Amino acid sequence: MNPKRQTELFCDWLENYLNYERIPNREGFTLDTMRYMVNRLENPQNAVKSIHVAGSKGKGSVSMMLSQLLTRSGLRSGLYLSPHILDFTERITRAGTPFPDEVYGNAADRMVPRIESMIPENVPGKREPTWFELVTLFAFMVFDTASMQWTVIETGLGGRLDATNVIIPEATVFTPIELEHTEYLGDTLEKIAAEKAGIMKPGVPVFTSRQHPEVRIILEKRAKELSCPFFSMEDAVASIESSLSVTGQSIEVTYNTLPQGPVFHEPFRARLSMLNRIQGQNAALAVYVFRYLFPDSAHDVLAAGLFSSWLPGRFEVIATDPLVVLDGAHTVDSICQTIKTFDSLVHDTGELVFACAADKRVDVIAGEFGKRFSKITVTRPGDIKKSDIGHTAQAFQRTLKGCTDVELEANPDFYDVLSGAFGRARSTRKPLLVTGSFYLVAEAKKILERDFQDLKN
């Protein structure tokens, strides 16, 4: 048996702190524990410059793009993302590439003994840190150990009380904000936007994607209160044109001339490896942020950074004949974008495998899928995330009422569902979309790797 990697040993230790992640209640939760821990470890988050990214969808993609742009500019860039699909190290990388195992090991050696010596007796309120707080602290330690020059830090959930909100970044970035995680963040867009706006810091420039009007009002108001320069892509971008195929997409972004001058004198053109149509908007935002921070950055460097940006589980094309796509989209708007992109690439009714967490707006989501697929199977998103397969199936039944052309099935055995779907795609050559949850995508990738290598092309 091979010895465990340093990251595996660290993950074993982390299992002791799977506490708050299973308790859906934020009452009384503060950042005091996180602030206490980083202070005791000499504030590793302040050792490097950072960019802070929050939002409901696209924040991982924008974070990856920014990290790749930094890397292509010759800077050592750390990247902190969540969740991971298959391996824990996906969360903490050098612009998407895992660090050598000894870097993770050295960071753990610097962190674990000191944490164990202080908790819970010395922590404010004697509250043990959460799993995510410890992972975030570990990311800061890894980036410090590896002597990164910049980091791109994606929030986990929300913003104001997120464990990442102990950094003072060079820029704060918001991707589209939607109604999500209402049990934690509030039951209206305004409340959720206010929580996410909590990551703004005095005087730090704020950049945002096009938002719902009520969200923009909240973000702009908070930026003004903190004297933060505020830039919205609604004002900055005149148009985004894209041309999509199964091998990538070409984009052309025309930026408006704003008071501080044009970002580009000519339309910006680039090729993206990430396929979903929303990636054009993500790229426009990432390039704008980067050009603000580095005004002299060359077009070819920006284009190369975007082309090298890729993440698993974001409209990931597993096969082109038949088309098999895995996508972790889990909000209404992101699923709409996934459907539009999938529709533009196929000319035949195919199969859908769908699973989502119990808190998702399945009535709305089911309606978006409509009658596009000849077979729809609803299942669970793995063993970790709580789901309500009965409620989800009922939502699809209401959408498909009176329709005899679509076969609907509900099966809680996600292994059986995914294996069957991959087998049918292989034999019938019909397109297949697996979506609704990153946890479902993770299970799908495991099954593909183990049993369906021949399906990949």
Please give a quick description of this structure.
With 457 residues, the chain is an alpha/beta fold. The chain is built from 16 helices and 19 strands.
What can you see in these coordinates?
The protein has 457 residues and is α/β, with parallel strands linked by helices. It folds into two domains: 6-307, 3-Layer(aba) Sandwich (UDP-N-acetylmuramoyl-L-alanine:D-glutamate ligase), CATH 3.40.1190.10; 316-455, Protein-Tyrosine Phosphatase, Chain A (Alpha-Beta Complex), CATH 3.90.190.20. The chain is built from 16 helices and 19 strands. The protein has helices spanning 6-14, 32-40, 59-72, 101-118, 131-145, 182-185, 189-197, 213-225, 233-236, 278-293, 299-307, 332-345, 362-369, 389-399, 414-428, 438-451; strands at residues 49-54, 77-80, 92-94, 97-98, 150-154, 171-174, 206-208, 230-232, 237-245, 248-255, 257-258, 261-262, 268-272, 316-320, 323-327, 351-354, 375-378, 407-410, 432-435. The strands form four sheets. Strands 4-3-2-5-1-6-7-8 form an eight-stranded mixed β-sheet, sandwiched between helices. Strands 14-15-19-16-17-18 form a six-stranded mixed β-sheet, sandwiched between helices. It has a three-stranded antiparallel β-sheet with strand order 9-10-13. Strand 7, helix 8 (213-225) and strand 8 (230-232) form a beta-alpha-beta unit. Helix 3 packs across helix 11, helix 7 (189-197) packs parallel to helix 8 (213-225) and helix 15 packs across helix 16. The chain is globular, with a radius of gyration of 22 Å.
